[in-house]
Amino acid sequence: MTEYLEIEGGRLAYDVTGDGPLVVLAHGMGDGRGAYRLLAPRLVAAGYRVASVDLRGHGESTTDWPSYTRTDVANDLLALIRQLGGPAVVVGHSFSGGAATIAAALDPDMVSAVVEIGPFTRAQKLDLGGLLRNGRHRKGVTLLLGAGALRSVGLWRRYLDHAYPGVKPADYEEYMTALEAALRRPGRMAVVSKMGMSAPTDAGAQLPNVHVPALVVMGTLDPDWADPRAEAEGVVAAMPAGRGTVVMINGAGHYPHAQFPAEVSEIMLAFLKEHARA
């Protein structure tokens, strides 16, 4: 059942399932809380209270927010955790990986640990060598930039098809059709464009201030980076020593939680067992 949280600037939509320590799931830009539809039930079955939220400007959340930075989303997540009664483990994908970083740094009493899946958490430099060497990376960057600049649902869908190499969920076409319809609503692709143009410098600046355990999950075929492992290890290297751990999901692209939910949930549940707090 959809619930709503009114905060300054707009309204966030979310749902909560299960009982136990709180886990908050935050999706990437251009998606919705259904992104975790294959992962959330596994966490609930393992004894966690799982809150899935539509980011500002996405899904059933409102669109007329003054800005769409990772810091904005981090504060949204903290507001939701306080509403539900924290602390929580925050799971952030892509754009929200950076938001999870900031939330953990701003309020470690409310964020007991973070899981970052394919996170955009550091400022990105255009790797011309990587673009030349890695055709998958070159195509992914081209589609991402094009979708944002042109606010094109069609290009975004082509990017998503590219970002799910090989294995796709059984409901992939159904989910993507619904997602396309949602993104064609007025203002939605403008939000995606604004998020895409929001550099993750705010998140990168907070990496040294993350003093809670962090798990970075990255697909070996993630097209958003020329070298996905190097990006994941770079994120962890910027955190205080011993805080972060990298796990690579073989054969996964930018959405390992949807492509390989059983494998990702197994990794996450081991992490949650150690670090989630009621």
What is this structure, in a nutshell?
The protein is α/β, with parallel strands linked by helices. The chain has one domain: Alpha/Beta hydrolase fold, catalytic domain (Rossmann fold), CATH 3.40.50. It is built from twelve helices and eight strands.
Give a description of the structure.
By secondary structure, this protein is α/β, with parallel strands linked by helices. It has a single domain, classed as 3-Layer(aba) Sandwich (Rossmann fold). Helices cover 44% and strands 17% of the residues. The chain is built from twelve helices and eight strands. An eight-stranded mixed beta sheet has the order 1-2-4-3-5-6-7-8, sandwiched between helices. Helix 10 links the parallel strand 7 and strand 8 (244-249). Helix 2 (70-84) crosses helix 3 (95-106). The longest helix has 16 residues, at 135-150. The protein is globular and about 40 Å long. The model has no long low-confidence stretch (mean pLDDT 91).
Task: Describe this protein with a few key phrases.
single chain; 278 residues; alpha/beta; Rossmann fold; eight-stranded mixed sheet; 12 helices; 44% helix; 17% strand
**Number of helices in the DSSP assignment:** 12
Please state the second-level CATH architecture.
Answer: 3-Layer(aba) Sandwich
The CATH superfamily is identified as: Alpha/Beta hydrolase fold, catalytic domain
Secondary structure tally: strands: 8
- Side-by-side strand order of the widest sheet: 1-2-4-3-5-6-7-8
How many structural units, i.e. domains? Answer: 1
Mind describing the biggest β-sheet?
Answer: 8 strands, mixed
The poorly predicted ranges are: none
Helix fraction, binned, reads: 40-55%
Average residue pLDDT: 91
